[in-house]
Amino acid sequence: MVAGGCGMAPLATLVEQLPSDTTLIHGARSKDFLLFPDRFDLAREFCTDDGSFGHQGLVTDLLERRITDGSPLDMVYACGPEIMMYKVFQLCETRGIPCQVSLERYMRCGFGVCGACVCGKQVVCKDGPVFGSEALREMKDFNKKALLKSGREVDLSLYFSWRCQ
Fold first, then answer.
1. Selection from 18, 19, 24, 17 nearest residue 1 by Cα
2. Is 60 part of a structural domain of the chain?
3. What is the CATH number of the domain that holds 57?
């Protein structure tokens, strides 16, 4: 399980349902932004952007380490910034590990009529928000573009490159 920032909140109930041999990779900007740092009784790896707690770096660094060291992974669940979830998806794809991510899009109506939350051919509010590897492979907009509240399309690669500098 990979949680980035406030992506820990929607994953919390799933964490409580999974077997105790599940590993949670949990990251945030700093120690002060880690949600539920003491809530779960399972293996956890922490990381922060500023190094104030755990590994200094990204959750995807820790996931990549687990994948390359041969740790058996049956499934990877992720929630957090879309750029993080895209990297999780890419890492899983290279090793044939199925994954599920919880996408966030601006949702106006909540039942698939307005089209504000589209990602490729998927309507996130109706078809998701959780999508597996098979659906993600077909999502041409995943980590590429989204619609703002105004309805204007935004190029996520430009947005994320600006936000990550």
1. 24
2. yes
3. 3.40.50.80
Tens digit of pLDDT for each residue in 63-106? Answer: 999 999 988 889 999 999 999 999 999 999 999 999 999 998 88
Q: Is the pLDDT of residue 164 over 70?
A: no
157 lies in some domain: yes
Helix residue ranges, H only, 54-155: 59-68, 82-95, 124-127, 133-138
| 99, 88 contact by CB (below 8 A) | yes
From CA 165, how far away is CA 156, in angstroms rounded?
Answer: 14
What total number of domains does the chain contain? 2
Task: Please tell me whether the overall predicted TM-score, pTM, comes out greater than 0.85 for this model.
Answer: yes
* Dmax (CA) of the chain: 45
Instruction: Name the residue range of residue 123's domain.
Output: 105-127+142-165
**Is residue 82 in a domain?**
yes
Find out whether 82 and 156 touch, Cβ atoms under 8 Å.
Answer: yes
pLDDT 10s digits, 18-28: 998 899 999 99
> Is residue 133 in some structural domain?
no
